[in-house]
Design a protein that fits this description.
Blueprint: H1 5-13, H2 44-47, H3 55-80, H4 94-101, E1 109-111, H5 117-122, H6 127-135, H7 144-147, H8 158-173, E2 179-184, H9 191-203, E3 207-213, E4 216-217, E5 220-221, H10 222-225, H11 230-235, E6 241-245, H12 249-264, E7 270-275, H13 294-301, H14 305-315, H15 321-343, H16 363-387
Parallel strand pairs: 1-2, 2-3, 3-7, 6-7
Antiparallel strand pairs: 4-5
InterPro entries: Alpha-ketoacid_DH_E1_comp (IPR050771), DH_E1 (IPR001017), PdhA/BkdA (IPR017596), THDP-binding (IPR029061)
Keywords: Oxidoreductase, Pyruvate, Thiamine pyrophosphate
Protein name: Pyruvate dehydrogenase (Acetyl-transferring) E1 component subunit alpha
Length: 388
């Protein structure tokens, strides 16, 4: 593990940006519109892309982040209490998910990783559907075509290939929608992600790659797998890249809108590195205290995405006590429904195991289903005979 100060400084030294008018490498700092202290930062080049965001919408973004954090906390508690087999917390990454997801159109199609429940929430997915697979009651949670978001991908990075293929289909259809792939910094070392970027660049596919650099690929720091900024990797494929403060919901929205605009106008793919931090474990099976410095965690707590937006809203006089109470009540209501629905979720029938394996009837699956059905019936017969 690379822990020396020189290695860390080398990673933090370089930055990559993108011009809103002429997307390319610019070598600037992270795009930021709200500071860690909750101060609004003026940036003429990027302010344009969020100039239509009203005070009411800012409050709505705050509600989104608060609700999804509450969903995340409730799901973590459900796992600890034995109601879920596993859960991948997103604590600290709310702004990178909410800011980007709220920039999408309904006809854009999203390909998420297993941690992107904030994106699913913005697409209209019921929180209860987010936990079905983690409870072991279903192999997936929702109908992808109802919400235009694929079910969550467990295989690291493979959703980038799906997104690129879908984007090429958009091209063939002559539509102006876009495909969006979400993944973590660790996924950029996977072959699938690199292959996806090769195809996306070669065919100038309308796909946006959103890498949430949360600094840890399970127990390995990002500076170990990449001695340059993650965004620089995309440049090697000929894909314009941008680095944004992933804890700044407004800045994330701005750069996502830029990338989507390029895709819709035939400008090809864009790579966004949202620099954020995973404040919780990789999953509930992980113990980050074994590999992560507590001081590092405290440094990032000071950059909390929800706290900084709350400070801005308070400064603007938008977050009254009544408004805050409504947000908290909404979060509690959603969490209570999630808990009740999860605990009372009916177990699937044994033969449901064979459903949805193929989209059309399959004789091989039907034969297995028949054999298993007769096997189950044999127990029923034995029970009846024993009762006599």
């Amino acid at each position: 593990m690379l822990t020396d100060k020189a290695g860390k400084d080398a990673y933090e030294a370089s930055t990559t940006g993108i011009s809103a008018e002429n997307p390319r490498r610019t070598g600037g700092n992270l795009v930021q519109l709200i500071s860690a202290k909750g101060e609004r930062i003026s940036h003429p080049e990027f302010d344009l892309w969020v100039s239509d965001v009203t005070d009411e919408q800012l409050c709505s973004l705050y509600e989104d982040m608060t609700v999804i954090r509450r969903i995340d906390a409730e799901s973590t508690a459900l796992q600890r209490q034995g109601e879920l087999a596993l859960w991948p917390p997103l604590l600290g990454q709310e702004a990178s998910q909410i800011g980007s997801a709220r920039a999408l159109r309904d006809d854009d199609f999203v390909f998420p990783s297993y941690r992107d429940n904030g994106v699913a929430y913005c697409r209209g997915v019921d929180p209860l559907d987010m936990v079905r697979a983690w409870r072991g009651n279903a192999s997936f949670g929702w109908d992808p075509y109802r919400y235009n978001i694929a079910t969550q991908q467990i295989m690291i990075g493979s959703q980038t290939l799906h997104a690129t293929g879908y984007a090429m289909g958009i091209q063939n259809d002559g539509a102006d929608s876009a495909a969006v792939a979400y993944f973590g910094d660790g996924a950029t070392s996977e072959g699938d992600v690199n292959e996806a970027m090769v195809f996306a660049a070669s065919f100038q596919a309308p796909v946006v790659f959103i890498c949430q650099n949360n600094h840890w690929a399970i127990s390995e720091p990002v500076r170990l797998q990449s001695h340059i900024q993650i965004a620089d990797r995309a440049l090697g494929f000929g894909i314009p890249s941008i680095r944004v403060d992933g804890n700044d919901v407004l800045a994330v929205m701005a750069v996502t809108r830029i990338a989507l605009d390029r895709a819709r106008k035939g400008g090809g793919p864009t790579f966004i590195e949202a620099v954020t931090y995973r404040m919780g474990p990789h999953t509930t099976a992980d113990d980050p205290t074994r590999y992560r410095d507590a001081n590092e965690l405290e440094d990032w707590r000071a950059k909390d995405p929800i706290a900084r937006l709350k400070t801005l809203l308070l400064t603007k006089g938008l977050l009254t006590d009544e408004a805050e109470a409504r947000v908290r009540a909404k979060a509690d209501e959603v969490a209570n429904k999630l808990r009740s629905g999860c605990v009372n979720m009916p177990d699937p029938a044994p033969l449901d195991l064979f459903n949805h394996v193929y989209s059309t009837p399959n004789s091989w699956i039907e034969r297995q289903k028949d054999h298993y059905s007769r096997y189950l019936e044999s127990f029923s017969g034995s029970t009846q005979e024993g009762a006599l």
